[in-house]
Every structure is written in C-alpha cells, then in structure tokens.
Amino acid sequence: MKRARWIALAVALAGTVALPSSAAAKLAFNLPAQIFKVFDTSAKTGVDKNRCEAVVFVEFPKIAHAVGYRIVVKDTGNGSLDDYVAPPFDTYGRGFIAKFPPPDPFARFFVGAYSTGEGCAAADANTESRQIVEAKVSLDKPFEKRFKRILKPPWKRAYKPGERTVKLSPRGRRKVIVRRLGEVTTIDKGTNQPINVFTNRYATSGAIVKTGANSVVQIGSLDGNSVLVGPHMTVRITNDGIEILEAPRHVRPWRVTSHDDYKVQTDNAVLSSRG
Predict the structure, then answer these.
(1) Could you give the 3-state DSSP secondary structure of residue 96?
(2) Alpha helices in 72-119, H assignment, sequence order
(3) For 122, which DSSP code?
(4) pTM beyond 0.85, yes or no
(5) Highest-scoring range by mean pLDDT, 56-65, 154-163, 190-199
(6) Other C-beta atoms lying within 10 Å of the C-beta of residue 187
(7) Parallel, antiparallel or unpaired: strands 200-203 and 195-196
(8) How far is CA 39 from the centre of its chain?
(9) In a 10 Å sphere around its CB, with 0-12 CB exposed, 13-18 middle and 19+ buried, how is residue 233 labelled?
C-alpha cells in the first residue's frame, strides 16, 4: 500500500518514520530493502524496434515474526517522498507486480515505470532518481532475544584443512550474514548478481558468500550459533549451516573484535537490471 507525501527533505531527515499503528509498540529493525528494475521489451514492433520499459520496484524479504513493514523512497529529481506500507502486501501494483512477481520469500512495491523508443539504456537512465531513504520492519519482542544470541562469543572459525561443511544450529533456510572486516559479497540462489554487504543481511539456502583479501564475515543461525569465515573464501548457505566451496591452501592468522550493536541494516546493493 502506497501513501504519497510531498514534504521537504529536511523534515524527512530530522524525524523518524512511525511504524504502522499495529506495530507501534513492537521492536523495529532496519530492513534490507533495495531498488530493483525489470526491463520489458515485449512492446517492440517492426517500426519501434528499440521500445523498452523500465519498471522500478522496491524489493524486500518477508521476515519471520514481522508485524509491519514501511519503506520510504525519495525521488531525487523533485525531492518528493513516498511511503510504502505493508501489510497488506501489494500483489497487483498497477499490473506490474502481477506481471513480474517477486521470488519467494520476497515482496515488492511498485514504484514507477518509464517507456521509451530509445532502448533499455535510456529507460534505465531515466529511472535512476529513486532512492531508499529508510526501510523498517517491526518485530515482536521474543524475536529480539533470538536475534542477539548470534553475536555472543566464543565463535568458531570456519575451515580447518580438509573441512568442507560447518554445521550451525538450529537448522533453517534463513541465515544472518554480518560483515566484520573488508569486502564481503553475496549471490542469491538463482541469480548471478553479486550484492555488496556493508553491514549485514539475511540470506537463504543456496546463497553464495565470498570474502576478499583481509576480509572476515560472520554467518549465524537465528536463535543459535555462528561461525567466522576468513579471507579468500567462498561458501554456500545450506539448511544445516555452510558448505565451503573455495578456501586458501595456507590459512593465515586473522582476528576480529566483537561489538555490541546489531541491526538489520539496508544493504547498498550493486545490482544489474534483469530483463
């Protein structure tokens, strides 16, 4: 559900966006939402060979124990702000969500569309003004305790020579990924597009996690334990934990310090458009 509001940016940044009234007394976290585009060339004709429509969505994961979602999107071209609130979840979106439904377990809000006869590059350039200002999910109180247990040390280090699987308890499709040092990227199952993890995000079974040089990532199960993955490694998320796909032949020592604060931050995603 979209609530359009035209207010000055200074006002938007000065205050926080209230959650839906049903979630007002609940615990709120930042939501890993992202701008997602689909390029539709189905309207091309013999005399309009370059016709392309860029369809812009906000895409976000459905979170267990969530009682409300709110995402604020800014149009940097004119400064306007739009609120998108769920539930209810929009499954139509002026026909665009019905035509391009999100993969399970994600949801989408329709943001806008732009059609041009000058090709998809022009459609892409004319839809670059949308930007997520804030994304929140409200969760129930018992979930907070489960969430924070992941960060309690001691942590096991992934990968001893010959080790190829690391079990995390309890079992489950969804894992939490926390960047500790350096460069960490993830590739969700069914895509080839890497997403840079700047703070943390959710991932489900089948997702690939990669670390760069001098990089460390923490992967944990909700309400359970976690593991630290060191530099130059590639692992796959599984229901049982992680599967190590690539690891250095000679493991060098590395160290990471703990911190107390933990939020489900919005990722800055490096996304290519899928047609």
Answers:
(1) helix
(2) 96-99
(3) H
(4) no
(5) 56-65
(6) 18
(7) unpaired
(8) 20
(9) buried
b/e code 253-267 from CB counts within 10 Å (16+ = b): eeeeeeeeebebbbb
Q: Which own/partner contact pairs does 128-131 have at CB distance under 8 Å and 24+ positions apart?
A: 129/75, 129/76, 129/77, 130/35, 130/56, 130/73, 130/74, 130/75, 130/76, 131/35, 131/73, 131/74, 131/75, 131/76
CA distance 97 to 113: 12
* Angle, CA of 30, 184 and 16, to the nearest 5°: 15
Q: Which tokens belong to 116? A: 């041009």
Burial 85-102 (b: 16+ CB within 10 A, else e): bbeeebeebeebbeebeb
User: How many CA atoms lie within 13 Å of 135's alpha carbon, on the beta-carbon side?
Assistant: 23
Rg (CA), the chain: 20
User: Which two structure tokens, joined as six digits, stand for 273?
Assistant: 């458009």
Q: Which helix (H) or strand (E) holds 123?
A: helix 120-125
All residues at 6 or more sequence positions from 47 whose CB lies less than 8 Å from its CB, including other chains? none
Give me the mean pLDDT over the 197-202 stretch.
74
Please report the pLDDT score of residue 253 as a whole number.
57
Q: Which residues of 28-46 are buried (b: 16+ CB within 10 A; e: fewer)?
A: bbbbbbbbbbbbbeeeeee
Pick the closest to residue 234 from 218, 248, 245 (CA basis): 245
Higher pLDDT among residues 19 and 114, named by residue = 114
